[in-house]
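Researcher: Good morning. I'm working through a list of sequences from a screen, and I'd like to move beyond sequence-only analysis. For each chain I'm collecting a predicted structure so we can compare shapes side by side. This is the next one on the list. No need for commentary yet; just the structure.
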Amino acid sequence: MKRFFTCLLALLALAGLVQSARAELWGYVDGDRVAHFSGSRLDSRFQAVMSDTADPLKVPGKTDAGGQLLTWLDFAPEVLSVQPYVREAARSNGVDAELLEAVIAVESGYKRDAVSPRGATGLMQISAVAAQRYATPQEAQRPALDLLLDPRSNVQIGARMLADLIRRFGHVDAALAAWNAGEGAVRRAGGKMPPIDETQAHVHMVLELYWALLQRSLPALAQQMKIEQAEHRVRSAERLAKSATP
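Model: Good morning. Structure tokens for this chain:
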């Protein structure tokens, strides 16, 4: 991975966007899962990929800096115990495991028994109504609370719901906004991010963590990449990522 980002820095230098291959590298993943890179922070969407000056990544309930948070996600027992369910749900529903991990971390901090004041329950903070909608016939035979407190069932139902929202709204950010604020709010906003501060902050937090997790496997997972310039964009296809890997 380090070699991959070093190659990107070199490409930016060749494009005249940075003065040295040792300069900072900034990026983000948009709603279409396109990775954007720049030699400077062009706007608030860009987060540091290689920088000593950027603000640390934080998730509600965690005060760790970005690197420490990712280490916690790698080693915490409550996280590791859920990983088989996350990978299973990702495979069966066509959703990135990293996206599921980011949603779980932001929604519940991996607390499987978390219940919000509004009754959203479990790892992915799912309502009883959503559980009824996305549960299989067999799952629907169980009481909603028991179903949502079961980690495997919670993640499977959440993955089905997220996959459905992505299919219907066409973008990960819009799907996350619908998850947080409701589908009606996104429809009223024309299928885009609604002008709700809480929802925008929530979506930004999930996407920021999703991006951080993707960094560790970006060459294999990014569908496309864009190297950003102030005046124009240079699109690089997936072959760029392949050529940068060992």
